[in-house]
Request: fold
Amino acid sequence: MSQIEIAQIIEQIKQEITVDSNGHGKASIRATARLAGVSAVAVLKTLDSVNQEPSKLAQVLMESGFDAVNLNQWRTNGIPDIAIAIILDYYAYEAARYCTKQAKLICRAFKTIGVRAWMQDIMGWTKPTTQQPEQPPAPALPPVEQRLHTLVLAMKTLAELTGGRLNPYMEQQVKDYAANLLAEHNRKMLTPSKECWLGVVNFAESELGKKVPISGSHYRGHLGTWVRTFYPQLGDRQEDRLVNGTQQSVYIYACHDPVVAAGLTKAIEEFFAHPEPAAALKQAGAFSKKAVVTA
Reply:
């Protein structure tokens, strides 16, 4: 299990994680199972066993303060962050032949942060500015300096487990995460900006909900070339970004501009509606010279 695969799993299950107003996180059974590197059926069997003969994991959960009612409710309400930490620890160290390398990797990487703080980070949760007197105060996130230190420790653990061979995507992700932490530290001092610059693939996937494939007739490289060929008026700004493991110059567009956003939307819809976009691009001479990466 590589770092990029783990990063992809975390991104895929993000929508199955919730954090309430008090900062308490929950995740679906499927998301919990994917983090632990086991099947959702295995987790379901653990929850079902509490009504008959509790499995070893069910016993561990009940010894930690959860009862049969709690485990039954998790099927529909989601598994709380504290229980997820126990499940990850179980499949990392206590499940004997059912232990998974993925559970151990994730458990070690995020144990110093804590599952709850990790969920709060990826969901962008912040402590409410006002608190209701009848409710206990929600736990605050550690200072930025402490979170950066924790991130360094987590990456050191990953480096030790992988022999120092970190995937370029993971390195880029860590750099982005550290930059976000520093930006958060100075956010109150910055002038608010409504600008949003995205590559055409990012715009298609995040704003239009399209799934842009990495191969085939409608793959992402052809989409970028389509916009540069038939809609050059949308802009020519370039920026160095990580593409296929290396830094390359790519075209980005002012998606905060309604005219540009509308133009990108039209271009993307036309691209996916065309039966043979490669043929249309070839006829327009798009492949006559090497172009800058446009994805």
